[in-house]
Amino acid sequence: MGSAGAGKSRRMPREVRERQMMDAAVATFGQRGYRAASMDEIAELAGVSKPLVYLYLNSKEELFTACIRREADALLAAVRAGVVERGIAPDQQLWAGLTAFFAHTAEHPDAWSVLYRQARTHGERFADEVAGMREELVSFVTGLLREAARATPTSAEPADLGDRDVVGVAQALVGAAEALAGWANETPDVTAREAASTLMNFAWTGLGGLMDGERWSAGNSAVVRR
Amino acid sequence: MGSAGAGKSRRMPREVRERQMMDAAVATFGQRGYRAASMDEIAELAGVSKPLVYLYLNSKEELFTACIRREADALLAAVRAGVVERGIAPDQQLWAGLTAFFAHTAEHPDAWSVLYRQARTHGERFADEVAGMREELVSFVTGLLREAARATPTSAEPADLGDRDVVGVAQALVGAAEALAGWANETPDVTAREAASTLMNFAWTGLGGLMDGERWSAGNSAVVRR
């Protein structure tokens, strides 16, 4: 950026500039990897000077931590927003959540790489940040499953799906979603919708149903037996 | 170890000594973490001198890599051995595989920590080793699912469960198993059998079935509708 641009950007609020730096940092960390990414590149991509990046975000470590937190919050917010409608059928709720999750990870591949590759690979401090997000995701899914189990008329005995079972299923569901998001983002031509649909069929219908030719259908909110 | 012990151990074959060092290394890396673990501790626990550890395994990095490879092979072998029986019903095969996986990760918590925590957290070189194991696991599960889909009499059209669907479901299943193993190993009182059973019910019956009170039962290889 020339001095004219610098003069102009000096009038930007700190918030806007910081967001630009973070956007540049997420793109750089996601594409080049945490270790290979340099503060020079990030500053250049953000169109600011390197000292300004340090002034705002202190160090590469703190900048990376800030990126992890921002992207974790964004992913959690996207999933929460996806299932905001209460009172809909549990399968529709799951479908809404999965669609939101896979749409977000597909639309933000750099953020996904920061959260699920880079943050987990470069030390416990960063991995702990992601583990925190994961716990929030599991506890959100646990809450939804609990509600769904209560709302299902046939479950006269709510103890049937025990408290620990519900947490276990939530863990399994989040683990499956993470694995599929990685697969979808790293396999050419696998769309977010396809990944969401594969997991929906698996999670809702089960392998037993899949083997019998059952499929979950978004249209009629019921399992289709072919 | 005193000099008498050292004299005795000098007659041990290299293979045996190397195994002792690796056992000590897996325990130390698993319990203390890769970074905190010292070669001194590992040598002491193995009852050998530190120079001997370096002579056999070169460096902390190479020792850690050797541990990852050994434990990845052991986990894969355990799962393969678990489903060695061909021709049994797909649900029984899945149950056998899950039981083998969770029994192995529960019986070898240090190895599990090396593979799923330490190796993933301390640099891309180690993470790549684990990614390789994961790929093998996914491709093994993919093969089983393909066989099962072919063997199921109702699937007149094998295209029903497409090639990519099968890979996606295998990814989901492995991701779910990894997440549940972590949860089981880090949550007091969650047994391997409980984790295997939670995943079996979820994976076979699906959430739709679970909500309706269905459970998979090992005894009669059929879904029990309560």
Automatic annotation (TrEMBL), chains A, B:
Query: What is the top-level taxon of the source organism?
Result: Bacteria
- Specify one Pfam family: TetR_N
Matching entries from InterPro entries are given as: DesT_TetR_C (IPR054129), Homeodomain-like_sf (IPR009057), HTH-type_TetR-like_transc_reg (IPR050109), HTH_TetR (IPR001647), Tet_transcr_reg_TetR-rel_C_sf (IPR036271)
Coiled-coil annotation reads none
Tell me which residues form the DNA-binding region.
38-57
**What UniProt keywords are attached to this protein's entry?**
DNA-binding, Transcription, Transcription regulation
Q: List each copy of the HTH tetR-type domain by range.
A: 15-75
Query: Could you identify this protein by its name?
Result: TetR family transcriptional regulator
